[in-house]
Amino acid sequence: MNAGLAVAVAVTFCWLGMVLAISFIEAPLKFRAPGVTLQIGLGIGRMVFRALNTVETAFAVAIIVTLAMHRPSTATITAFAIAVAALAVQLIAVRPKLTQRSNAVLAVAPGEEAAGRSQAHYVYVAFELIKVVALLTGGVLLLAG
C-alpha cells in the first residue's frame, strides 16, 4: 500500500471512530448526566456536532483527493461516495431542521416544553448509520487493496 492510500485508511477510520464515539456514545449519554437539562444538552450538542461536521468535511475532502489521485476499485469509490453523500444530506437538509427545532426548544422558558417533536433527529441518525456502514466498507476495501 502506498503512502497516499495509507493516509486515506487512517482518515477513514478516524472519521468512523469520531462518528461512533460522538453520535452513538456522547450524544445520548450527555442527557443522562446529573444536572444536564435539555437546554444545556442541546447547547453542548450544537457545539459538538458543529465541530464534528467541520472535521468530517475536512476528512471527506482528504479522502476525495486521495481517491482521485490513486484510483482504487469501483466498489471502494462507491462506498466513499455513499459516505460523502450521507454527510452532504445531513449538512444541507437535516441540520437546518435540527437547528430550527433546537432554537425553538431553547426559546422556551425553563420548566415548559416546546410544542411538537421533530422527526429530523431520527433522519440524522439514519444517515449516521449509513455513513458508518459506508466508511467501514470503504476502509476495509482500501485495506484489502
From TrEMBL:
Entry annotated with the keyword Transmembrane: yes
UniProt entry tagged with the keyword Membrane: yes
Assigned keywords, A-Z: Membrane, Transmembrane, Transmembrane helix
Superkingdom to which the source organism belongs: Bacteria
Transmembrane spans: 6-27, 48-69, 75-94, 122-144
Protein name according to UniProt: Transmembrane protein
Organism: Mycolicibacterium nivoides
Taxonomic lineage from the root: Bacteria, Bacillati, Actinomycetota, Actinomycetes, Mycobacteriales
